[in-house]
Batch of 3 targets.
Target 1
Amino acid sequence: MGKKTPRRSTPPLNHEQKAEYIRLHLFNELRWMLEAATEWSIQDQLKLGKVGYNVQVYALDSAILHARTLFEFLVEPTTDNHYGYNEFLDRGIVLTSGSYKHNWRGPLHIFLMHAQDRSSPVPLKSSGVEKDLNQMPVDFAQEILKLWKEFEEKLKHSGDTRNHKLKELAREKRKEAIDGAACVVNSTVAQKHAEEKGLLLKSVFVFD
């Protein structure tokens, strides 16, 4: 008997499935990325230094994991392993991120997939400033939000009018994710620590 062809995990989506993908899967990635990046930022400001309370490390790993997934969707086409922007946009329409393509992609994958020597990390560039990858959660999130808004606009101007509803759904989910991240800032625990430190915590991401 011949070998069976591996089942593709990214079969074509109909319109209802596309809406479900945005509502459930993409939103899940966006929500947890923004909340994790916000938590990382809060812990970076508080600098609690409590033994056994390594929330900033957990937030870093979570933010980077979800950012990698969203970058794959927003700037790379569909493969057998993941859906890409082209599953949703008109033929020939692409989304691009120079920062991800030329500087961030390799380090993101290496950080998540390989236990390599990290004693001399390669700095990443963000707005002309060099940073270590472990200082990049908010930068990654801001770039994702920029790409997400571009994704909304491409859907809005699609030749397929059904995509206009997908645009509204994507916008709604972006707002919901940003609102969720604001709740991290306003949480009782964060505000208590900020008060003890004499700090004023502000929302990291703003809906516009």
Target 2
Amino acid sequence: MKNSTDLSERVKSLLDSRLKLERVQGKHVIVSVNAKLPAAQRGKLLLDTEKQLRKMLDAKLEIFLEPRGDLNKLRQQLRGVDYEK
């Protein structure tokens, strides 16, 4: 457990301010993006971050975005919209 906590702290210290560390699972670093970015910029940010983490910490680390639910479905439920008529 100590190694995972140490790795999480080291990852946090290297992350761009637009990224938030959600968790580390083995060699998977799961992050969320705090800023509204176009897809191309978001992709470049994630790739650059992965390269930096691999260089500084471990060559096997991989960056993943935190999965998000279907927000449209949530909005429909909140509004009471029923499209199955």
Target 3
Amino acid sequence: MMGIIVKLSFAVFWLFFGATILIAEYNRGQQLVPGPFGVSLGWWCILLSVYNWIRFVLTWLFQRRRPPAEREGIMTSLRPQHLNQPRTTDAEPQPADPNPQITEKPPPTS
């Protein structure tokens, strides 16, 4: 689930960053920063956004195709098997100690 959020965050970030650069270049009338191959840096950011949108959609579709039990059990399958099993206690619970617990030291006598 965390990977989907990261991919979506990058997609939105690059989309806004690229759109901001393209709008600024349109208002100014020239490229702010010439990108590689003479293409505006804004278009490269839009390309990165499209790449991350594709990754987001593919990951989301892959997650939805999994059975729900497998989706929820992804993290538990990585844990050691003894941690997945419920705790069983064979010993009876001990009764509470009737004696008072004194943890503070008495004040010094002068």
